[in-house]
Design a protein that fits this description.
4-stranded antiparallel β-sheet; alpha+beta; elongated; Immunoglobulin-like; 455 residues; 16 helices
Length: 455
């Protein structure tokens, strides 16, 4: 039930899918490493300030009360994953998953320092000497440097990264910042440097349940067994058909380039991450032998079984299931976009003072006392006016002069009183409304309901 891990040394490969993986690495890491350094309104463009519970994303400030938008984003991400998997299998894993991306970066470093697959295998088998110690030390030093930079960047999303850089070089980081830089760096170093395919094979749950999202019309990486078998070695230009052989020359390149070390010729396996390195490797061999490309290619189960012609494959890929996913995903995305566009940068909460139900003022009015919280969700100060409705002659008295000025992205607490003549209210509880309105932009207003209680 347990086998000792055999180290996998993937062979480098070139081709269209290898280029796509390079672009996937470059684009994702430009975003990850670059965003914390961008500035917006004299602050980082993207900053999740946990201490003040404010989350800045370019020109928008989010508060914990905006959790609904995060929920919408998570739903979109989940549906997007279902859609991409239904269309083309584990395309996310092969091109954009962080584990794949950082493994790819670490393998580039390894190849640059130690050489291609044959040299790395030879180096691993060689006795320890000065050269091997130097190469291994250089590789791990580069891995650790990249890992620490990754951890530093990660923390830079929660602490302004320019301030963090000054603290880092002066050894002035706080305990939590230090912990997360080194913890995230250690996780990156361990996952991408040492565990690699083990994360995909044994730790990632997606590998286990991906098959339930596949169907016979899902594009997956397939080996054309009818064309390739029986496989066997031969010389270039030889009449292999006369010998009863297929197009597969049994070179093993498809296995050598696979980052998880599987043989795609055995059929679809949960270990396959959909990186398509085997397609590029096989196409290179086919080109050298003068055979048509596509012995290993993206195809569907129905096409491989001969139920549909290859030329009609894409028409079946965009089937009702995919169209339904697309429609739902589009609807939710548009709804979330409209909600963000129409979002009022103002929130208010009101709470009655439970210590005092009702009291009589010096001028004979009945008074209820409340605590009100006004949240300015904009990055500039605003002035707000409070009014009340629900009872005849209901007045709002605030502890501060109106209009109330609330600074940018600030939560302001104020004590307010609602006063009404005894003849204008009945005993018991009466629902009333407090309106908070922006003086300079009347369109920005919120209504909070509460109760006015009279014994």
């Amino acid at each position: 039930m347990y086998a000792v891990r055999k180290k996998i040394q993937p062979r480098s490969v070139s081709g269209i899918f290898a280029s796509l993986r390079v672009w996937g690495v470059v684009l994702t890491q430009l975003v990850f490493y670059g965003l914390p350094w961008l500035t917006w309104n004299d602050r980082p463009a993207v900053l999740f300030d946990l201490l003040t519970r404010r989350f800045y994303i370019f020109g928008t400030v989010f508060f914990p009360q905006d959790f609904i938008y995060l929920t919408g984003l998570l739903v979109i991400s989940a549906l997007g994953l279902f859609l991409f998997t239904a269309v083309a299998g584990r395309i996310w894993c092969g091109y954009a998953c962080p584990q794949t991306v950082y493994t790819e970066l670490f393998m580039w470093i390894e190849q640059f320092i130690e050489g291609d697959r044959p040299k790395r295998i030879k180096l691993d088998k060689a006795d320890w000497d000065a050269r091997k110690i130097f190469l291994k030390t250089a590789k791990h030093a580069a891995w650790i440097a990249l890992s620490l930079w990754t951890g530093f960047t990660f923390v830079g999303y929660f602490t302004p990264i320019r301030e963090l850089a000054v603290e880092f070089v002066s050894f002035g980081m706080g305990p939590w910042e230090t912990f997360w830089v080194f913890f995230y760096g250690f996780a990156t170093y361990g996952n991408a440097g040492w565990m690699r395919e083990q994360v995909c094979l044994y730790m990632c749950p997606y590998a286990r349940f991906q098959s339930v999202m596949f169907d016979p019309d899902t594009l997956i990486i397939t080996y054309d067994e009818k064309r390739g078998e029986p496989r066997g070695q031969r010389r270039k230009g030889a009449d292999y058909r006369a010998d009863g052989k297929g197009d597969c020359v049994d070179c093993g390149i498809c296995v050598q380039v696979c980052p998880t070390g599987i043989d795609i010729r055995k059929g679809l396996q949960y270990e396959c991450i959909g990186c398509a390195a085997c397609i590029d490797g096989c196409n290179q061999v086919m080109d050298k032998m003068g055979y048509p490309r596509g012995l290993i290619r993206y195809s569907t189960e129905n096409v491989m079984l001969g139920k549909f012609a290859e030329r009609t494959m894409m028409a079946h890929v965009f089937r009702p299931r995919v169209l339904l996913y697309t429609a739902i995903l589009t609807a939710i995305t548009v709804t979330l976009g409209v909600a963000l566009y129409m979002r009022t940068p103002l929130k208010a909460n009101i709470m009655r003072d439970r210590m005092t139900l009702v009291r009589e003022t010096d001028d004979g009015l009945l008074e209820n006392v409340y605590r009100m919280q006004i949240i300015n969700m904009d990055e500039k100060p605003h002035r707000y006016k409070l009014t009340a409705s629900g009872l005849e002659g209901l007045k709002v008295v605030t502890a501060e002069a109106q209009p109330l000025e609330v600074h940018a992205a600030e939560t302001h607490n104020v004590s307010i009183s609602l006063r009404v003549a005894p003849d204008d209210v009945k005993p018991g509880s009466t629902q009333v409304h407090i309106q908070v309105q922006d003086v300079d932009n009347p369109a920005f207003s919120v209504n909070e309901k509460t109760s006015f209680i009279v014994k």
